[in-house]
Amino acid sequence: MTTLFDQWGIHPHHFWLRGQQPGNPVVFDEKTSTWNVYGFDAVQEILAHPKTFSSGTADLLAVEVDPEVMEGNILQMDPPGHRQLRNLVSSAFTPKVVADLEPKIVKLTHELLDKVQGQDRIELVGDLAYPLPVIVIAELLGVPASDRDLFRGWAERMMETSIELLRAERAEEQERALKEQLESIGKLRDYLRVHVLERRRQPREDLLTKLVEATVDGERLSDNEVVNFAYILLVAGHITTTLLIGNTVLCLDAHPEEDRLLRADRSRIPGVLEETLRFLTPFSLSLRATTEEVELAGQRIPSKTMVHVWLSAANRDPRHFDRPDVFDPSRASNSHLGFGRGIHHCLGAPLARMEGRIVLDILLDRFPALRTDPALPPTFMQADHMTGARTLPLLTRV
């Protein structure tokens, strides 16, 4: 049977979006010599034990990674280094800092939508869902939001090469994909390095300056650590929000009764966003490496083995969620893993939630009729590790 997800072009590996369930919560893939973890409890177990399931997966690639690229890469770090770096930047995402951003986000959302007001069709990702969070993160860091098209090109190429790395079966394929990925990363790092060096000469009231001036165990971060940390925040910091906005609109389009209820009662917005995070999890996949032999859901996983942690599959686990394949914003319990869990729980989750809430509220105000275009269906990210629209044309009139 053809499902809505097939029509949308969801990645073929994401079988759980088609109502299918894995035979076991933990499955070994002989082709890639990796373990796939789909069950909610097993995923939660992994995320809760970074000592056994390390985020430092670079050593398991068949190619050598430049150590300079890994310095300050918080996504690849375990405690205590991870905790120290996370604490440095956490001040930029406190409840007060996030709340103070609300007027600016409201203003930016209206400014972006003013550019397409009156048109019969908008392209939600390019017109709003992408530029808004990029501008917000760029302003937090202190780099010009006017350079967002540069960021988008670098970010998309890094995503494409990440996919190639995951799929590569031979060392030469991995080496080629990694080389292309590092070229894109290098361009962004060079760009950020200019701003980091400038902050050392002339400090400002921004996050880059805080990183430049911060100390860990009495020592300042190196230029590489600041640059790499900043690029992770810039790239990862906007993608989740971009995908969340598009996915929410898609879910409401596919469930018109929920759209009607939401338009009548805006207090339902938080529930809609949380259910979207569960139903169409933006970051589908997280990688871990075992540091010792471990038993998980009855399976023995050897030490130094790559583990694919499928957050989006865990969010459809019928052992944890009632009617997991039903989009139900009013579900009583929704302890999803849309922002991860444990020490790597998404630092920008409060900001993403606020941006999603503001955007959805304004879209409902400004567009009484907003729906997908049968003649121009959405295109999806063709990435194992992400779920969401790359382009999303919408009709604005009845």
Description:
Strand 1 and strand 2 form a beta hairpin. The chain has helices spanning 4-8, 40-48, 67-70, 81-90, 95-100, 102-114, 124-129, 131-141, 148-167, 171-201, 207-213, 223-254, 256-264, 269-279, 311-314, 349-366, and strands at 26-29, 34-37, 53-54, 121-123, 215-216, 219-220, 285-290, 294-296, 299-301, 306-310, 371-372, 379-380, 389-391, 393-395. Helix 6 packs across helix 16 (349-366). The protein has a single domain, classed as Cytochrome P450 (Cytochrome p450), CATH 1.10.630. With 398 residues, the chain is of the alpha+beta class. Belongs to the cytochrome P450 family. Keywords: Heme, Iron, Metal-binding, Monooxygenase, Oxidoreductase.
Secondary structure layout:
Layout: H1 4-8, E1 26-29, E2 34-37, H2 40-48, E3 53-54, H3 67-70, H4 81-90, H5 95-100, H6 102-114, E4 121-123, H7 124-129, H8 131-141, H9 148-167, H10 171-201, H11 207-213, E5 215-216, E6 219-220, H12 223-254, H13 256-264, H14 269-279, E7 285-290, E8 294-296, E9 299-301, E10 306-310, H15 311-314, H16 349-366, E11 371-372, E12 379-380, E13 389-391, E14 393-395
Parallel strand pairs: 2-10
Antiparallel strand pairs: 1-2, 3-7, 4-14, 5-6, 7-10, 8-9, 11-14, 12-13
